[in-house]
């Protein structure tokens, strides 16, 4: 059964026929739809959504003037806590039945992100748009689209609260996936319910010979681990010895480049890589054409986007917002500038600072790359080192030295009266760590002028420790963050750095 031949629900077909128009116009339509739907909620009444809707010509400006910017802590303390108590019509109509548990990569306590049927429906529409874009791809085996889709996601056995369920967004999405997708979905309902990540992988490895997989979907590190386990158990040369029709890898959440070299050693032939930007708060962007180096922002979908320039006028050294900076809309941004992302969604997130930073690489096509997190950057002395700088330096170092570095993290530390950067990298090969340090340093100087200046003054050195990849996974496990939704933080600060240092001293 070819997936392109499936008869889709009429509501989805209508949504897929949205006209291709200027992003500014489409975003205004999205905002108006959100405001109309939520105008009778407590939030909508408190901030005068009715009055905002009456100012059609200045709708966006009125919305920005009247509704404050929120982060998770502020919107939870003021509004979302009421929904967990079972109260309806707080930030979105009706009761919230599902919550995506998200800890990001720096927070210890779980965040409860509301998930509504409206949000899930909108996410599905964007997923189908991305799937249909494969019709424009070349040099791929389209028969693989109708094969199995192995999704390495969170458990569908959700936690039960007082009138709600909570778990990974991937588990919620799978649990509520449409009937027409069930024939393709692997590993199946029984394995999908398993909460123990190690047991889940073991069960997948057992069942692997029974499946004909065309798509792999998941975070790179865990997908690579799964393939390695299958290859080892069945004494294979590559994963294609087991699944000859494997054609696609759909990934997101982290930059794939640091994983690519090690990942491709497990393949018998090249895969088509498809990047997505699916957060707990919604489906934000997706790769819309083959070999794209960026993702298209879903401006015609369900999210109203705003962008705050990510600089030291708007954010302090801890990544916290300063004052009330001006937020730009999609037609006001510039290419090549890093922005902190604000979302308003059909789940009751309003002007919500998601914590990610993005950069437009093609404004006309609304194509972006993820450059990092507002709290994950290093600027001890003004070096302004972003996660994007780090990812690219690691990628270039891997290429030059012909090594695989699937994980890494960086911390700042004192160096006498000055400072240094301490890198921890995962590599299972024998390497000269001083050579690695020198190579990373060389490329960072090329990538970042501020870094170059500070390396000649107050940033006196960089150090590299080389660790087995297993150490990084075990640290996540020690924090209770083992699984598909959790990524290793690229920058260590505060309590997480303390936990890491303690773990390396006692936990290895």
Summarize, please:
The chain has helices at 10-16, 23-38, 42-46, 49-54, 59-66, 72-84, 117-132, 169-175, 189-192, 197-207, 220-233, 257-264, 387-401, 433-447, 449-455, 469-478, 494-507, and strands at 98-102, 111-115, 148-151, 159-160, 165-167, 185-186, 213-217, 248-252, 272-279, 282-286, 295-297, 304-309, 338-344, 352-362, 367-373, 408-415, 418-426, 459-467, 491-492. With 508 residues, the protein is α/β, with parallel strands linked by helices.
Can you tag this structure with a few keywords?
GH3_C; 508 residues; GMP Synthetase, Chain A, domain 3; four-stranded mixed beta sheet; eleven-stranded mixed beta sheet; alpha/beta; GH3 auxin-responsive promoter family protein; globular; disordered N terminus
Written description of the protein model:
Among the domains are: 121-279, no CATH class; 387-507, 2-Layer Sandwich (GMP Synthetase, Chain A, domain 3). It is built from 17 helices and 19 strands. The protein has helices at residues 10-16, 23-38, 42-46, 49-54, 59-66, 72-84, 117-132, 169-175, 189-192, 197-207, 220-233, 257-264, 387-401, 433-447, 449-455, 469-478, 494-507; strands spanning 98-102, 111-115, 148-151, 159-160, 165-167, 185-186, 213-217, 248-252, 272-279, 282-286, 295-297, 304-309, 338-344, 352-362, 367-373, 408-415, 418-426, 459-467, 491-492. The protein has an 11-stranded mixed beta sheet with strand order 6-3-7-8-9-10-11-15-14-13-12. Strands 2-1-5-4 form a 4-stranded mixed beta sheet. Strands 18-17-16-19 form a 4-stranded mixed beta sheet. A hairpin with a 4-residue loop joins β14 (352-362) and β15. α14 crosses α15. The protein is globular, with a radius of gyration of 23 Å. The model is unreliable at 1-20 (pLDDT under 50). This is GH3 auxin-responsive promoter family protein. Residues 389-493 form the GH3 C-terminal domain. GO terms for molecular function: acid-amino acid ligase activity.
